[in-house]
Design a protein that fits this description.
- This protein has about 260 residues and is mostly helical.
- Helix content is about 75%, strand content about 5%.
- The strands form two sheets. Strands 1-2 form a two-stranded antiparallel ribbon.
- Helix 4 runs antiparallel to helix 5 and helix 6 runs antiparallel to helix 7.
- The protein is globular, with a radius of gyration of 23 Å.
- It starts with a strand and ends with a helix.
């Protein structure tokens, strides 16, 4: 995956995406609409169709390599699989004892939930990989959501990358001193690293707040936005894509 200052950054793809030039409001509404259809439809074929198409868009249009995209999917897929295993295993009581059973119905239900969730994750990645966070905040500022919430969202998002970079520096320093040579030493090193990270996080917060004040911060974050286009053919294609999802869902329910 592409690196930026020793950390992996989703923003790298958002700024180099071929879809960045399109209006963020349209992309946000499109994402919400596909999410609704993904959760509303209840057929395996429809979920596979959404996952395959959104994955193709992310790889081809957002210019993310297959391997990098696989790295992005690893963590959410782990949580999805663990949750679906819990759904497949039905827990009950048999003669006063706890019994765990797996049936065809529970397996089918878990697979359906897994594919629907996977489709939703791919849809959300479409938004994050094609739209910089500042433009998403721009759209949210036009909604009834209080500005304090949107600004906190932006600052927390940025601060995650700052702390991740600091933690990586701590990790590399500990590795150079054999801090992870065995399990006991690793636990001790991890505890010290987290304690130091907490202290450094307060220091970083003060420094970045002072930096904001030096740039005339008066309680409101201001962003410089580029002009984005609203392309009618893209809008028509998005509508047709939504219709195709509904059509496939109706067709599959009629056949199966």
């Amino acid at each position: 995956m592409k690196k930026h200052k020793h950390i992996y950054s989703i923003d790298y793809y958002a700024y180099q995406s071929n879809l960045k030039k399109y209006h963020p409001t349209f992309k946000l509404l499109f994402t919400i609409s596909i999410l609704f259809l993904c959760l509303w439809t209840n057929h395996i074929a429809t979920s596979i169709y959404i996952s395959a198409t959104m994955m193709s868009i992310n790889i081809l249009k957002n210019q993310v390599s297959f391997w990098d995209y696989f790295q992005l999917l690893k963590i959410p897929c782990l949580f999805i699989i663990l949750a679906c295993i819990a759904i497949a295993a039905e827990i009950g009581y048999d003669n006063g004892k706890i019994a765990v059973s797996i049936t065809k119905e529970s397996i089918y239900k878990s697979i359906t939930v897994m594919l629907r969730t996977f489709g939703a994750v791919n849809t959300l990645y479409f938004l994050t990989l094609s739209t910089p966070i500042a433009e998403i905040i721009r759209v949210l500022k036009k909604t009834p959501i209080p500005n304090i919430l949107t600004e906190l969202m932006f600052m927390i998002y940025r601060y995650i990358f700052i702390l991740t970079e600091v933690q990586l520096h701590f990790k590399h320093a500990a590795q150079s001193r054999l801090g992870y040579i065995d399990f006991k030493t690793s636990c001790y090193t991890f505890g010290n690293s987290m304690a130091n990270l907490l202290i450094v996080s307060f220091q970083k917060a003060n420094k970045y707040y002072d930096a904001m004040l030096s740039r005339c911060y008066n309680g409101e974050l201001l962003f410089l936005y580029e002009k984005r286009i609203f392309h009618i053919p893209i809008f028509i294609g998005a509508v047709l894509y939504g219709i195709s999802i509904i059509f496939i869902d109706i067709l599959c329910k009629g056949i199966f």
